[in-house]
Write a structure and sequence with these properties.
Layout: E1 8-13, H1 16-23, H2 32-37, H3 45-51, E2 58-61, H4 67-74, E3 79-83, H5 86-95, E4 101-103, E5 116-122, H6 133-142, E6 143-154, H7 158-177, E7 182-188, H8 191-200, E8 203-211, H9 220-224, H10 239-251, E9 259-266
Parallel strand pairs: 2-3, 2-5, 3-4, 5-6
Antiparallel strand pairs: 1-7, 6-9, 8-9
């Protein structure tokens, strides 16, 4: 059933390796330099350059292996990372023993009140089954007055509403019938739904933009359908996928993008 009024709730296999394979997550290639280079290919990168402060500490809350931390530090930004998965922190330290990435929970950060100039949150807020309110409250606590939040979540677009969400729901129904264990994976919000949560949490929205890669790479269709992926090149589509993406992009970049980036200022 198409969901218009509520966030789309997605489930994945309990096996973490299987879930990651289904998602095609960024940052797990094993080649850290290649993963870092992907940052420059993302549509959100220009807004990082535009809005992130050159003075003051920046936190990436949920930094994974730290590709954005490394990328932005190379551009001269004072960025540190906080990551819940110890394996991801260990991978960052293996790449650079001095990596400013530490183990911690984004819901309970070790930072003092009003001590951080900007917080980056990429693909994190959607994973709280109870919703993002607690995470947004913690961001608000640590941000300086007028501090910035740059946040992405996967969002519902027309292609997902009409096709991919229904396919995934059917697939999960069949898995449940077979007794295959599933677990909550993420919410996919409409832009209006997530913006209402940002405003309720006390943030002013300054700008928004689609979150995806620039061609020839792609995140939205690549993530949603393994049948549209190039068989050998990560984050590239096959011929059918490229044709579909080209057709949709001529209408609007919002039709098949992976998600949305919001740039917000705390009141």
């Amino acid at each position: 059933m198409i969901q218009f009024s509520t966030p789309h709730k997605r489930y994945a296999l309990k096996s973490l390796s299987q879930s990651r394979e289904e998602l095609g997550q960024i940052g797990g290639s094993g080649d850290m330099e290649a993963d870092i280079s992907l940052c420059a290919m993302q549509t959100i990168e220009p807004l990082f350059r535009k809005y992130l402060p050159r003075e003051g500490q920046i936190l990436e809350a949920g930094s994974g292996r730290g590709r954005w931390v490394f990328y932005l530090r190379r551009l001269g930004f004072d960025v540190t990372g906080l990551e819940l998965a110890r394996s991801e922190v260990d991978a960052a330290k293996a790449f650079d023993p001095n990596a400013p990435i530490e183990h911690g929970n984004v819901l309970h950060t070790p930072f003092k009140d009003h001590s951080i100039a900007a917080v980056i949150s990429l693909g994190v807020m959607e994973h709280f089954e109870e919703g993002p309110a607690a995470a947004l409250d913690e961001v608000r606590r640590i941000l300086t007055p007028g501090g910035l939040l740059l946040v992405t979540v996967p969002t519902k677009d027309l292609v997902r509403l009409l096709l991919f969400h229904n396919i995934k729901s059917l697939q999960n129904s069949l898995r449940r019938l077979k007794g295959i264990p599933l677990e909550f994976e993420e919410y996919r919000y409409s832009r209006r739904q997530f913006e209402s949560r940002l405003v309720t949490a006390g943030f002013e929205i300054l700008e928004r933009t689609p979150d995806d890669f620039r061609p020839p790479l792609n995140m939205g269709l690549y993530t949603d359908s393994r049948f549209l992926r190039h068989p050998a090149r990560q984050w590239e589509l096959n011929g059918t996928g490229k044709a579909l993406h080209a057709a949709l992009s001529t209408v609007s970049p919002w039709l098949d993008c992976s998600g949305t980036l919001w740039v917000c200022r705390v009141h």
